[in-house]
Amino acid sequence: MAQNMNEHTVPSDPQELSTAILDLWVEWVTNNNLQLHPGQIRQLEAAIRTNIAHAYRGQRIPHTPTGIRTLSPYAAGQTIASARKKSGVTEITKLSSNEHAVGPSPQAKDTVSQLLSELHRYPEVQHRDLHEALANHHGLKKNQFFIGNGSNEAIDVLTRIHQPPGAVGVISRSSFSMYRHFLRSNGVLCVEVALNGMQQDRMALLEACRKEGAAFLFLTTPHNPTGEVLSEKALLEVLDEVGPGTMVVVDEAYGEYAEPHPDFSPAQKLLERYDNLVVLRTFSKAFGLAGIRIGYAMSNPSIIQAMDQTRQPFNLNRLALSVAQAALEDVGHLKETVQTNHTERIRLRTEFINLGLQVPDSGANFLLVQLGVPGKTITASLSDKGILVRDLASYGFPDAIRVTIGTPEQNTYVLEEVRAALEVEK
Ligand SMILES: Cc1ncc(COP(=O)(O)O)c(C=O)c1O
Fold first, then answer.
1. Quick check: CB of 175 below 6 Å from ligand 1?
2. pLDDT tens for residues 202-212?
3. Which of 93, 101, 143, 217 could serve as 387's disulfide partner, Cβ 3.0–4.6 Å?
């Protein structure tokens, strides 16, 4: 092909032209003794093929990058309304999305009615009050917080602001799907590493980072869906080994729930030592505010500044800003939430284990339950009774379900119905 090009005969087929250009490029890289990471080579190859294919196709609308074209929208669990309709059961027990068992602090709820007369006003653009409240809550500086429309927005913005050429992000294969989603949406190649049993394989993740010259490494503690908690030793092992050019994102969406767990160590303690560390938290879980969409990232001021430079001006609505602040102030509600969850998680895990099931230790508000039969079957039986749990086939665990810790009554109910559904399968 390269010869054809030298002879000024440009191939008419887009595939052949891409290959010819790649051949020339490889020759040039080799002749110039350039060292490139496999991720950079793959990225360039994808760019050449996509651009040439598009050029041949003429004006295509939308002219969507390959990374986005192959994405699927987020597959959220069933809503209470659709579950009611499907099952005919009025009282739905929703334990499928790791939501709060009882909802937000009463103080946070009261804030909503006070705000109704101000809905025609734009929200405060710099989130000053909430920055201050978060700084006090975590003992950090105000300029160490990026507040977003859910921690999802922080993941989106982070993967947009760190774009070295040929950027690659490394994640665990069975983890929160939004890491992959936003890496690829923002043109970063996503490399996935299998779990080692029920644990994030730190050595294999580090090896992938080294091999790819990774721009990002995502860790989750407690991990979704296994519940695995990372100790300080585990975090240090990664942060000390990974290169300084790799942004290490530690997602602690369930961090508050993990406080009583003996191994859990909040990664924010390490922010002072590692400039490449970003810690994610959210109001969606232990604060019970999933519906209002607010979460945040903690990092060094230069990463935070870059994030703020690219976000939408009014990314947080008035309700979210005020309700989150009220929730943060109600320390009692948070403490009670965490304690009840801890007690109930231990009880439910013990009871599932007594049924002969395997349930890894969890620091979160959910349990991964290995059933020994397809998760789909049990999910369907529970759904007929108005109980929603998460089938984990898409996470790579076809024989498991994820059960959110609910109220004590809900937990007893789900336990009884899992037992009954398994009896039928025997
Ligand atoms: C690990 C993990 N990170 C982040 C999120 C999303 O949080 P948010 O609602 O703040 O966008 C979830 C939600 O389920 C999650 O499981």
1. no
2. 999 999 999 99
3. 93
